[in-house]
Every structure is written in C-alpha cells, then in structure tokens.
Fold this protein.
Amino acid sequence: MADRSNSLENRLLFAIPKKGRLQDATLDLLRGSDIQFKREHRLDIALVQNLPIALVFLPAADIPTFVGQGKVDLGITGRDQVAERDHSTSSTGEHQLGWEEVLDLEFGSCKLQVQVPENGDIREVSQLVGKHVATSFVHLAEAFFADVERKEGGNEDATESVPSERQLRTQITQLGGSVETACALGVADGIVDLVESGETMKAAGLMPIATVLESSALLIKSKHSSNPDLVNLIASRIRGVITAQKYVLCQYNVHRSDLETVTRITPGKRAPTINALETDGWVAVSSMVEKKKIATVMDQLTTVGAQDILVLPISNSRTI
C-alpha cells in the first residue's frame, strides 16, 4: 500500500467509472486520447505510462464528491450523478462542491424519468403527491416533487432548494438498484429512474409521465487541481477525440461562380478551406461536416454543381 501511495506522488489523479453504462465509452475515449495504461486485475488504480497521470476507478456516484473535495483532479461521470450530489449538498447545508464542468462528452445519453404502471390510474405527476415513490436519486426526486407540491398548492412550506422529508407529502423511498421492480412488488406507486432505450421499463410494465433531468457523460475538474496545465492538456485531447468522432472531412471541386452557394451547405466549424485549381475558374473546398448529416450534404452539393466529392474520416483533431 505504501508503494502504491508513493507512486501517486506528482501524478494528476483522474477518476474513471469503475463499472456501469459509462465505462466502455470512457475507456475508448482514453485510448483515443493516447492515455496509455494497464489496469491490473482487481486493482482500482492504474498508472499511465506516457503521462504523469494515475487513473482511479471509482463508482460513478462518488466521482463528483472526490473531484469536488479536490481528492482527484479530473473525473468522468454522468450529469445525473453530478446533479444528485449538488442537490444533496444544498439539502444538507454543505458548501457547494468545488468542481467545474469542462466538457459534455456526448455519450451515455439518458433521461431521469418519473415512471408509473401502464395499467394503473396515474397519468400526471400531481397524482403521485402523497404517495410512495422509489428511486436511487433521492435528492433529485425530493427537489422535483417539492416543486410539484408547491405548484399544486399542496405544500406551501416546501422550498425548491432545500426540500426535506418532513416537508414533503410525497414519500420518497431510497433503493440501491432494480428500482423498476418497486411498483410490481408493491413498494411504490411510481419510480424515478434512469431510462436509456426504455425497453427495461416497458418490460416491467411502466410508462413515463415526466422527465426530471436529461443526462450524458461529463468531464469535470476540481477548482483546486494540483496541475491545471495537465488538466487543460487532457481536456484538449478529449475534445479533439470527440470532434473526430462527430465530424468527417468533406472535399470537393466546384466552379468559383457556385462558391457562395456551396459554402452555405458546408460552412465548416469556422470556415471552409478554399484553394484555387489549375483549371481556370475552379476551386477545391475542404470542410468539416457532421457525420450524421454527410449523406444529405453530398446530395445537396451534387445538385448545385460540386464535383469529385470525397469524404474522409478524421482520426483525431485539435479544435475549439
């Protein structure tokens, strides 16, 4: 243990989800950012071989706390976990967490939703006031139903920032997992839980009636990092990988008289690159285009006279 502690000296600590829905995409992101490491079996710390960084594998729910308290410098976790921790500090009167959002990583998209039995009578969140609601996101659920009760006039004492169990008429029950089974087992009248495709909820006979929060993976940093320059370097690498995953490079030739029209179709992230061709009156255009839009963009370019259209993958990038 002492050797492991000594090996962390002068290393930036980067918290990574140790399991769950975000881990695989996070590890792919690290590989794309050339963060080279080998995680020994059953160890939750991995030393990066080519940078002074140590990866610390933690439960996603704990990462906002470790980053906020300055115990680690960087972390990847879900917006839902950040929001839950933020609401927990508000409700207990603790100081706000010392973390900052660096980047929305654009993966792990899901929704924190209120779900109720499809074959039941509840169709509005107001109908859950005074009933039992099960969740693993207690503080977000309390804040949500405090707002519902206040709007319904059911509890004028409930406040948005500091809801409490004593103030709420709605009874929030904390569950650590398998929340979707709570209604079928008679534990709750409704639940608040994360939903990705919705298939699990459908299989459990549940339907959504409200969205508490839309979530995706975030890169967060401590306000008291031991090495802010290295934090910025890693953020820049990760941002470059995300851009490369999102965009392709579209190249084509077009007559200069059509240039204004085609650059409206492919404006690029900042502006397209334009080079003159030896053929009189023609130019070559290069522009970054969102991958999901490229087929439509190619059709539009062809229609307005662009020729020799090529689409190239971007393996990595550095963009703002």
